[in-house]
Amino acid sequence: MERKPFLFKQYELGMETLFTFEDERMDKKSHPINGEAAYRDAAGNTHPVIRQFILRGGIVNYLGKVLLQRWTDWHNQTMQEDAVNLGEEEEYQKNRTAAKENLHKVVLELHTKLAEAHRHLKREMNDLFTYVMDKHELWNCKEYFKVKTVLELANKNLIKFAPPKLGD
């Protein structure tokens, strides 16, 4: 199918002439570098590296959400523990020491889970980054840019939701 050139009028520029703009769109199969068809085999299946980009990007996204949820749980329990420690008088402290100990155990358990989630996200992010750097021939596909965005978000989450030391 032959494409016809587009015609544009230049009234906005003070010129009343017409100029042509050749339509450079091509069939994806005929453009081997940037077209999506370049990353598909003859049966139309996606290239295995692209599938890995998508899969590993999904895992890093999921682990980022887990880290956020665990940090939120830990933060809420820590705030509750601080409120209990500051707001009680001496009489109530004697009666509620068991409850305070249980709350402290919960906070320590949540801190451990937070540290695990942080470690898992960091490991997966580093693995994905290494994988992407090794596959430089696919840096011009759209999935690469999606993975790059996922890596940036994961890095921000690692910094923002880092577990503090227990002494803090």
From TrEMBL:
This is GL11981. It comes from Drosophila persimilis. The gene is Dper\GL11981.
